[in-house]
Amino acid sequence: WSARDTHPGGRWSRGPPPSAFRRRCGVPLCSAAREDDGGPGPDSQGEPEEAAKRPASQELTAAERRIAELHAAACAAGQLNYVDPATGCMVFTQLAHLQRGQCCGSACRHCPYGQINVKDPSKKKQFNSYFYV
Predict the structure, then answer these.
(1) Is residue 26 part of a domain?
(2) Domain count, the chain
(3) pTM
(4) pLDDT tens digits, residue range 52-105?
(5) Between vectors from CA 79 to CA 102 and to CA 5, what angle results, nearest 5°?
(6) pLDDT digits (tens, 9 = 90+) for 116-128
(7) Region Disordered: which residues (predicted)?
(8) ∠75-67-76 over CA atoms, to 5°?
(9) Which domain holds residue 117?
(10) Which among 89, 92, 97, 100 could disulfide-bond with 32, CB atoms 3.0 to 4.6 Å apart, if both were Cys?
(11) Is residue 44 within 8 Å of 87, Cβ to Cβ?
């Protein structure tokens, strides 16, 4: 099994991944943000809500910096996803979204299309100059 067994829509072309990747995160594979509960951000420590309240000029939190680093490294390596350090869920990189060619509407963290197809306004997130929180 490899990352190539999926496409950006999150469906498996050769069956489900090994059990290590079947962890129930309560989110679609294209986003590690807690979309099912309308939560605005990528981790469970409350920092995304704080990030939404702080001015855009302020520094990223340590968790946000780590996400930005992981995403940059994955993109530089040509990878379509990486593992969210807070949840253990797979998160699609901007490369995966660009490969899809349009916004999937799932309020994905690294959406390069401005989350234009997200129907529920409460699920849309703020862009922190690196990714959506």
Answers:
(1) no
(2) 1
(3) 0.58
(4) 444 454 689 999 999 999 999 999 999 999 999 999 999 999 999 999 999 999
(5) 80
(6) 999 998 888 888 8
(7) 1-59
(8) 15
(9) 31-123
(10) 89
(11) yes
